[in-house]
Amino acid sequence: MNDMKTIIEEGNAVLGIELGSTRIKAVLLGEHYDTIATGNFGWENHLENNIWTYPLEEVWRGVQAAYRAMADDVFAKCGVRIKKLRRPVSAE
């Protein structure tokens, strides 16, 4: 875990967020795309005007909750808080 702690402290970790159909997932990745920590938020879509959708307020609440759970996982595993993240390399 020391290597992961250094990666986090130096701001070299990357955050990924997925808005899936049943939950929002947050994952913190190391320099070689290894998983450092994860968090999630369960949710359900809503049928509005015959369209399955998610209220925007719930999206933001879910992203915040998933990030918070991931950050708590980082602290539990590595004993540090996330202060800075690396920008992912563009696929261009």
Brief descriptors of the model:
92 residues, alpha+beta, three-stranded antiparallel beta sheet, 2 helices, 5 strands, 34% helix
What secondary-structure arrangement, pairings included, does this model have?
Elements: H1 2-9, E1 14-19, E2 23-29, E3 35-42, E4 46-48, E5 51-53, H2 56-78
Antiparallel strand pairs: 1-2, 2-3, 4-5
Please tell me about this protein's structure.
By secondary structure, the chain is α+β, with helices and mostly antiparallel strands. It is built from two helices and five strands; from the N terminus they run αβββββα. The chain has helices at 2-9, 56-78; strands at 14-19, 23-29, 35-42, 46-48, 51-53. The strands form two sheets. It has a three-stranded antiparallel beta sheet with strand order 1-2-3. A two-stranded antiparallel ribbon has the order 4-5. Strand 1 (14-19) and strand 2 form a beta hairpin. The model has no long low-confidence stretch (mean pLDDT 91).
Summed up:
By secondary structure, this protein is of the alpha+beta class. The protein has helices at 2-9, 56-78, and strands at 14-19, 23-29, 35-42, 46-48, 51-53. The protein has one domain (2-78).
